[in-house]
Specification:
Layout: E1 3-5, E2 30-33, H1 41-52, H2 69-83, E3 90-95, E4 98-103, E5 107-111
Antiparallel strand pairs: 1-2, 2-5, 3-4, 4-5
C-alpha cells in the first residue's frame, strides 16, 4: 500500500515548511489506494489515518462509531465485483475528526480539516 499527500509528497518524504525548508506541515489531506477485490477497505482506512497521525491503529476512535466496517467492506467489495472497474461508487463520512471518501476504484481520501466549513 502506498500513501500520497495530494501535493505529491509521499509519507516517507520529509515534510516541508511553507518556505520550502524541512520540518513544516505538509498539506494534511491524504490519499491512499487499495485493491477492492482483495483488501479490506476498513482496515486500509484505519491504517492510513493512523499513519498520517503517527499513531497506533488501536489508539484511534472505533470505526464502528462512525460507520459499520463490515457493511463498508461489503458495499465496496460487492460494487467492485458487480460493476467491475467501470462503475463508480463513493461513500463519504466523518471519522475521528476527518472527512473520509472511499471510492470503489480503490481510493481512500482523508481530509483532517474536513470539519472546517
Amino acid at each position: 500500500m502506498e500513501f500520497y499527500l495530494l501535493q505529491g509528497m509521499t509519507m516517507n518524504d520529509e515534510p516541508s515548511k511553507p518556505d520550502g525548508s524541512a520540518g513544516g506541515h505538509p498539506d494534511p489531506r491524504l490519499t491512499t489506494t487499495f485493491d477492492p477485490d482483495v483488501d479490506s477497505v476498513s482496515e486500509e482506512l484505519i491504517t492510513a489515518i493512523a499513519s498520517s497521525n503517527d499513531a497506533d491503529p488501536t489508539e484511534l476512535e472505533i470505526l464502528a462509531h462512525s460507520i459499520d466496517p463490515d457493511a463498508l467492506d461489503a458495499l465496496v467489495s460487492s460494487h467492485s465485483e458487480v460493476q467491475g472497474r467501470d462503475g463508480h461508487l463513493q461513500v463519504r463520512f466523518r471519522y475521528a475528526g476527518h472527512v473520509v471518501s472511499v471510492d470503489s476504484d480503490g481510493t481512500i481520501s482523508v481530509d483532517p480539516g474536513g470539519d472546517r466549513n
